[in-house]
TrEMBL record:
Pfam families: EF-G_D2 (PF22042), GTP_EFTU (PF00009), RF3_C (PF16658). SUPFAM superfamilies: EF-G C-terminal domain-like, P-loop containing nucleoside triphosphate hydrolases, Translation proteins. GO terms for biological process: regulation of translational termination. It is found in: Cytoplasm. Keywords: Cytoplasm, GTP-binding, Nucleotide-binding, Protein biosynthesis. GTP binds at residues 18-25, 86-90, 140-143. PROSITE patterns: G_TR_1, G_TR_2. InterPro entries: EF-G-like_DII (IPR053905), EFG_III/V (IPR035647), G_TR_CS (IPR031157), P-loop_NTPase (IPR027417), PrfC (IPR004548), RF3_C (IPR032090), RF3_dom_3_sf (IPR038467), RF3_GTP-bd (IPR041732). The keyword Membrane does not apply. Its main location: cytoplasm. One of its GO terms (molecular function) is GTPase activity. This is Peptide chain release factor 3. Increases the formation of ribosomal termination complexes and stimulates activities of RF-1 and RF-2. It binds guanine nucleotides and has strong preference for UGA stop codons. It may interact directly with the ribosome. The stimulation of RF-1 and RF-2 is significantly reduced by GTP and GDP, but not by GMP.
Length: 526
């Protein structure tokens, strides 16, 4: 095996998806604890509030106590190198989350045992399904009274449309929570609430018939034996291929805050989760073990360092390797750039390594020359697709406070929209600038950044737009006719694409009925 093959085989690049409060932050912290990336649990919690204290515009984030940005954490486990891509917890920044999901090879889904499948989980699952992303499920908070495990699995199957294969099974819950039975190992892992912040393997008892179990579990042992017989008979056995195809999810139970069930999850993750997989470009499928570098940008973050007004483009490596100082070809601009100082995200023990491999993320500093979905290669003209833009659901007209700043406003908005921070629409009928967002906080962030980075003060006014659709039509004649008849509703987005801004849902519906040859698309792929 070459270095490249070895490095690929080790990599696991993933994200955690969940509804807010299910325990994503807590689980992240424990995963890093096991991975040795942080010494003390608690570091991540702190990070939730303080990690961007260095950055001006992040003050906004701090004020609101939410996480706006995505970052990368690399750690080691079971001989693997795991890249965990963090996603914003707040629904207003869900576009960032969707795009991050295009850069992972698999996902962990966290579900609160008392709440079951919640609305954000459903939406995120839909996004994972677009690429058949393999998913491992962690059912959390077993130390509290929750719903029956069987009921939870039924709900996942019915609502999320994915088969469940439990790999562990909980013994009681709440006050009666005693641990989990590991179905593959045929062993009981006993719960001990004293190990919250430490990496310890608790007591393990081999064999369901082991008399030690009667001693430890008392009357609950009978229940457990009966339940396991039922579970073995009624549930799907784990099928690795079905998991890799996104048709089945292995399920683990535990309590993240008590550091329980996390090691079992992590072991299985290192064992079963896929290493970097081939990825489709518009021209051809790119295999990770191709020696030449390729990758795409899934996220741009501005002003991490207030001293430098630059941005960082997060690039996922798809093939080959990155080495400090190498030349990369910026396909959209048709330009070679020398990457002297990419940001790498290394596990704690590999601090000084200046290379990165497929599955890894590197951060490219730039001043607005890099956009979401840009592809970089070593010369080949490739374009990785599949990064979605979602039709915004909220709209505002931009009001400029100083009319002399119109040019700066245009420039700022265009750059911010290219970055994916907001969407900007210019109606064909007038000179308005209309902003579109998925969540209302995006407007605040945009105004904040316009002031901070472009020195432009702006406000917002309500505008009569309910929803937007990208317009496509194969017949140029029909398209011309459509444009003429619907002039007052049409606009161009930041990329120059034609968009229909519907004042009401009913208006949109009527237009769709009236123009059967025109496609009204709710997403646009970059
Ligand atoms: P996030 O919004 O998904 O990142 O969720 P957090 O990790 O911030 O957790 C939300 C709340 O649930 C916090 O108050 C956690 O302390 C709590 N929590 C997380 N895991 C557990 C658990 O295993 N048991 C209990 N009882 N609470 C938990």
């Amino acid at each position: 095996m070459t270095d490249l093959h070895q490095e690929i085989a080790k990599r696991r690049t993933f994200a955690i998806i969940s509804h807010p409060d299910a325990g994503k932050t807590t689980l992240t912290e424990k995963l890093l604890l096991f991975g040795g990336a942080i010494q003390m649990a608690g570091a991540i919690k702190g990070r939730k509030a303080a990690r961007h204290a260095t950055s001006d515009w992040m003050a906004l984030e701090k004020q609101r106590g939410i996480s706006v940005t995505t970052s990368v954490m690399q750690f080691e486990h079971g001989g693997c190198l795991l890249n965990l891509l963090d996603t914003p917890g707040h629904a207003d920044f869900s576009e960032d989350t969707y795009r991050t999901l295009t850069a992972v090879d698999s996902a962990l889904m966290v579900i609160d045992s008392a709440k079951g499948v919640e609305e954000r989980t459903i939406k995120l699952m839909e996004v994972c399904r677009m690429r058949d992303t393999p998913i491992i499920t962690f059912i959390n908070k077993l130390d509290r009274e929750g719903r029956e495990p069987i009921e939870l699995l039924d709900e996942i199957e019915a609502v999320l449309g994915i088969a469940c294969a439990p790999l562990t099974w909980p013994i009681g819950m709440g006050q009666r929570f005693k641990g989990v039975y590991h179905l593959e190992e045929d062993a009981v892992h006993l719960f001990d609430a004293r190990h919250r912040d430490r990496v310890v393997k608790g007591e393990i008892i081999e064999g369901l018939d082991n008399p030690l179990l009667d001693e430890r579990l008392g009357e609950q042992v009978g229940e457990l034996r009966e339940e396991i017989e039922l579970v073995r008979g009624a549930s799907h056995p784990f099928d690795h291929a079905a998991y890799l195809q996104g048709r089945q999810t292995p399920v683990f139970f535990g309590s993240a805050i008590n550091n329980f069930g996390v090691l079992e999850l992590l072991d299985a993750f290192a064992k079963y989760a896929p290493p970097p997989r081939p990825r489709a470009a518009l021209e051809r499928v790119v295999s990770p073990d191709e020696p030449r570098f390729s990758g795409f940008v899934f996220k741009i973050q501005a002003n991490m360092d207030p001293q430098h007004r630059d941005r960082i483009a997060f690039l996922r490596i798809c093939s080959g390797s990155y080495r400090k100082g190498m030349k990369l070809y910026h396909v959209r601009l048709g330009k070679q750039i020398t990457v002297a100082n990419a940001m790498t995200f290394q596990a704690a023990s590999r601090q000084h390594v200046e290379e990165a491999w497929p599955g890894d993320i590197i951060g490219l500093y730039n001043h607005g020359t890099i956009q979401v979905a840009d592809t970089f290669t070593q010369g080949e003209k490739l374009k990785f697709g599949g990064i979605p833009y979602f039709a915004p659901e909220l709209f505002r007209r931009v009001v400029l406070k100083d009319p002399l700043k119109a040019k700066a406003l245009h420039k700022g908005l265009l750059q911010l929209s290219e970055e994916g921070a907001t969407q900007v629409f210019r109606p064909l009928k007038n000179n308005d600038l209309i902003l579109g967002a998925v969540g209302v906080l995006q407007f605040d962030v945009t105004a904040f950044r316009l002031r901070d980075e472009y020195n432009v003060e702006c406000g917002y006014e309500p505008v009569n737009v309910a929803t937007a659709r990208w317009i496509e039509c194969d017949d140029p004649k029909v398209l011309e006719e459509f444009k003429r008849k619907n002039f007052e509703y049409l606009a161009e987005d930041g990329g120059g694409f034609l968009v229909y801004l519907a004042p009401t849902r009913v208006n949109l519906q009527l237009a769709e009925e009236r123009w059967p040859d025109v496609r009204f698309k709710a997403t646009r792929e970059l």
